[in-house]
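As a warm-up, study this chain.
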Amino acid sequence: MEKLATGGMAEVYLAKAATTVGATRFIALKRILPHLSENSQFIQMFRSEAKVVMNLSHTNIVTVNDFGLEEGQFYLSMEFLAGQNLLQMYEHLQQFRISLSIQQIAFIGREVASGLHYAHHAVDASTGQPLNLIHRDMSPQNIMISYEGEVKIIDFGVAKAETQIDSTTAGALKGKFAYMSPEQIAGQALDARADIFSLGIVLWEMLAKARLFTGSDTPQILASVKELKIPTLTEVDSTIPQELSSIVKRMLARNKEVRYQTAEEVARDLSHFLNTKYPEFTMEDFSRFLKKNFSETYAKLRMKLTDYSKIEMAEGESVLRQKSRTSEKTEITTASIDDGLLDLEPSRHHLTKLDSLKLPDAKVLTAETSVAVVSTQERPASKVPDFNPHEEQRTNQKRTDLWIGLSLVLLLTALGGGYAWRKFKGRPAVAQVSADGPIYILRQNANGQVECVPNTGPCPESFGK
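Now compare it with the structure written out below.
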């Protein structure tokens, strides 16, 4: 439907997936950049990312549904999260001089730590062997926050697992320098504690409202990290609770043995802090804060998704096939996405624009009108019926008539049952029971209870049991 982001090695699109019940399900499609498609190193990185993330299933990690190769383009099909990354969210709030609260920051840290702990101890589903996974790029850009208050880690593209076919060159630096641990800067062997240090930088910056390691260029930033002069948070802001300051300080310990040994320990201490200081804080509270302070952005996104959901998959595919047959172009065209897309009318207007596009034979296309279509494999035309509004109207009329008939039957049945209930309510239903022995009578009283009345003989002793 549109391009969401472009990174160093891949770009991400918003797409719509077909479902068997006809419901709309939005996904994020990530594919390697076209000019890198022939680069074996980047292809290998993309393969490695897919191999790793397909093993991960956790509430604090964005889910990857599928991985494959389509017309020479590697892609990942991922969970679409309606929200922003932490950096985008922070910069937006700064414009209005709004700060995240202590409990919100602690909540974000706890959720990320939970996701990291799961990833650090994940196993290969096919072998059962530990992946020994390290994210190695734990930065605000890779922490997604949904408008529902969910916190999820994204982009394990530079993660290193033992199952990776070609290991990263020894000593090579990957990730963002300002969020690297000292051992990562020094090119030493890494373990899960490197991610804990990086998360500590993120929490320190959110609490201090300032960058921790700064510099005008990369060498200065690296020197700042190596120097490791980190003020305690209580020195920066006396209103920051000492307990939280101590947690972050331990996360940022230069000595790995002094640092938290597992992300689970971080999550546990942050949970204890929240339960002790802010026991009533919930994810729903965080969601309300986000929806209030991102009300315009949130409303526009909902409108956009509503418009996109009205585009019929079959109609879009028909347009694609028709244009693909007449088009001789094979290049992939891309365009920037702007807010003009939000002014589009419902699906009819979308389809009118789609029909006017010159679409190449690519699978992921972005049009100059900022509308993109993600097609599936081409199927024979006979399998996709042409859209006929009159036939659809007749079908809908038949369904309406059927429902009206069923409704009348149910109504008459209910009226009849109600009449019978009112007529016989409270009247005893009498039955005379005869056997080889004496005769006795069973009847139902006004309270609905069955009682036995002796006639030519007494009631049996077993009655009522």
